[in-house]
Amino acid sequence: MSRQLRDVVFVDGVRTPFGRSKGQYAETRADDLVIKCMRELLRRNPNLPPERIDEVAIAATTQIGDQGLTIGRTAGILAGLPTTVPGYAIDRMCAGALTAVTTTAGGIAFGAYDVVIAGGVEHMGRHPMGEGVDPNPRIVAEKLVNPEALFMGNTAENLHDRFPAITKERADAYAVRSQQKAAAAYEAGIIQPDLVPIATRSAEEGWGLATTDEPMRPQTTMESLAALKTPFRSHGRVTAGNAAGINDGATAALLMAAEVAEELGLEPKMKLVSYAYVGIEAEFMGAGPIPSTEKALAQAGLTIDDIDAFEINEAFAVQVLSLLDHYGIADDDARVNPFGGAIAFGHPLASSGVRLMNQLAAQFKQDPAKRYGITTMCVGLGQGATVIWENANWNGESK
Ligand SMILES: CC(C)(COP(=O)(O)OP(=O)(O)OC[C@H]1O[C@@H](n2cnc3c(N)ncnc32)[C@H](O)[C@@H]1OP(=O)(O)O)[C@@H](O)C(=O)NCCC(=O)NCCS
Fold first, then answer.
1. Is 348 in the pocket of ligand 1 (CB under 6 A)?
2. CATH homologous superfamily for 139-190+273-390?
3. What is the pLDDT of residues 356-389, one digit of tens each?
4. Is any atom of ligand 1 closer than 6 Å to the C-beta of 94?
5. Residue 37 falls in the annotated catalytic set
6. pTM (2 decimals)?
7. Which residue's CA is the closest to the ligand 1 atom numbered 32?
8. 152 CB within 6 A, ligand 1
9. Which residues does residue 9 pair with via DSSP β-bridges, in sequence order?
10. Whose CA is nearest to atom 28 of ligand 1?
11. Domain extents for the chain?
């Protein structure tokens, strides 16, 4: 039997507003966040009969409690999907949602699925980083991984050491811009269409409605950042201001074969071009997007000059800057995270990949002359993840 690969398209993506740990979602379950995203995808796409969904892949880094029990399956049942729709859970730490998307996309291209929901959730308030982990002692005893690399902030300090040209001032200036761009994107109404309002409840304050990203700090200045402590190293360079925070949130995306989107009358926003994951030394985790981007570009037969739009996860400013320096891209290049990034919105680990895709789709919508775009992120224990997308509504002009 011979097979023909099928094109995979991103039709839609949504997310909850992100919360500060112990903030607006302090008393909200993690699974309820991702269920609401799945319901919203169905509501926004009434042409999609729910029984046409062939798979639900939901990522979470800590897969216990309300993020456990094979969350793709449990969330599917709770979202009211037909019993026949299966589901499973995925984990690649920060790149969980990205992996949920690319793994199911492979299944679509292969012909195993027509339509999937892929996303992620992380409630870092209910599930602190590292909760319940039990690293094999050999990892440290046999020096397979430098023990300090188990703490992400240390790896960011290591990157500053490795690339001395990336100073604290550059990292802070990048962070200030991220906050400013995020505020401007809100002002222009670019972020809100991606958001699903979430009903919240607090024993003290009663019912509420989360409609905006709680971590944002639009008043951030170089002076306010200069005053912050460096929690990972005395006289270090990484602070709460130039890093993403500890956050809660969920995302979900609707992917399908291009021919199925056409059959259902759904309009794709982006087409998958290539993707790559690459491992690097765990203690320089933040540089992971460099080799994964090289590999994804090579697979696609593209060079960095072909890329018109970048959505780079801002786990730490230094890590974004290391990728930009590698390619000789300016810190304030207009193609890079023009609507702000994780430093402003937050980074609920396994959910963030779809936020990047939503914002890339927004870049493509804003400028149909942009053809190719990249979503990329670094991953704990030393990995990089890169997905290259093509604007489904590219107007045929070259930038
Ligand atoms: C950096 C980190 C340790 C800070 O944690 P925290 O101390 O709980 O962070 P907070 O939000 O309380 O901020 C600390 C202080 O900085 C201040 N601050 C934070 N961002 C600021 C900004 N943009 N401007 C001004 N002040 C800011 C806060 O107001 C707070 O001040 P306070 O101590 O006077 O209350 C934590 O966010 C972290 O670990 N981030 C990385 C997460 C991570 O590893 N993700 C995975 C990536 S691979």
1. no
2. Thiolase/Chalcone synthase (3.40.47.10)
3. 999 999 999 999 999 999 999 999 999 999 999 9
4. yes
5. no
6. 0.98
7. 228
8. yes
9. 256, 271
10. 240
11. 139-190+273-390
